[in-house]
From TrEMBL:
Record text on cofactor binding: Binds 2 calcium ions per subunit. Binds 1 heme b (iron(II)-protoporphyrin IX) group per subunit.
UniProt domain Plant heme peroxidase family profile: residue ranges: 30-238
Molecular function (Gene Ontology), one example: lactoperoxidase activity
Keywords assigned by UniProt, alphabetized: Calcium, Disulfide bond, Heme, Iron, Metal-binding, Oxidoreductase, Peroxidase
Protein name: peroxidase
Superkingdom of origin organism: Eukaryota
Ligand binding (heme b): H154
Annotated function: Removal of H(2)O(2), oxidation of toxic reductants, biosynthesis and degradation of lignin, suberization, auxin catabolism, response to environmental stresses such as wounding, pathogen attack and oxidative stress. These functions might be dependent on each isozyme/isoform in each plant tissue.
Keyword set includes Oxidoreductase: yes
Biological classification of the source: Eukaryota, Viridiplantae, Streptophyta, Embryophyta, Tracheophyta
Cofactor(s) the protein needs: Ca(2+); heme b
Amino acid sequence: MSLRGHWYPMLGLEAASSGFTSMTALLIPIQGCDASLLLNNSDTIVSEKEAGGNINSARGFDVVDTMKAMLESACPATVSCADILAIAAEESVVLAGGPNWTVPLGRRDSTTASRDAANAFLPPPTLTLAQLRESFTNVSLNNNSDLVALSGAHTFGRAKCSTFRFRLYNFNNSGAPDPSLDATFLAALQQLCPQGGDGNVTTNLDVTTPDVFDSNYYSNLQANRGLLQTDQELFSTVGRMISSLLSTHSVLIKQLSLKALWSP
């Protein structure tokens, strides 16, 4: 039996696939891909796990712990947690139907964390396109092609009602829903997330193929079915680039694989 067929189900890698991609992406704006997100609270560390953009969102920590324990048993003090995350993210994309790529190794684990930096630099789902572009520029990413391509990681994953409910009832204090939302999609979201309801209820970022790594995230934006405001903002202004990515899915993979997200 193959490694993917035997070990990955045991480790829970398939179930946590979207979590690894998200977890790795969440590290980019903070201190780089150094696994600082894995550090727990201590006398000297204020964990990034409890930052606004991470709490009740980043997951898969137990699976990383299992993989690290197995590697330490086989080859102590050799493989960093940062490399584990990068490899797990690539393998998760493969398990979700996407392509594979070579993951450069040699990352070193951080011994510090910065919840303040996480709160400051992780973009919230309420940003305008201009603000999104600024946040990418601030971490030395291209605020056009990188922004659109890396947003494609929302091909899988979940979001809480609290991150998009403002679009459903009183968008920008208008007293009405976000006019960019497809009417059928809006009705479904209002049923899921009623006013005054539980803000921790979650739904899929990609309503079409939520557990598959494909280009349907972009197709959803074309149909005004982007869940987060920051998702739909992309199509409202840079629709031509999204259409290009739709027609050439490999462009998305190239953008993702060549970025600091996968590099030591």
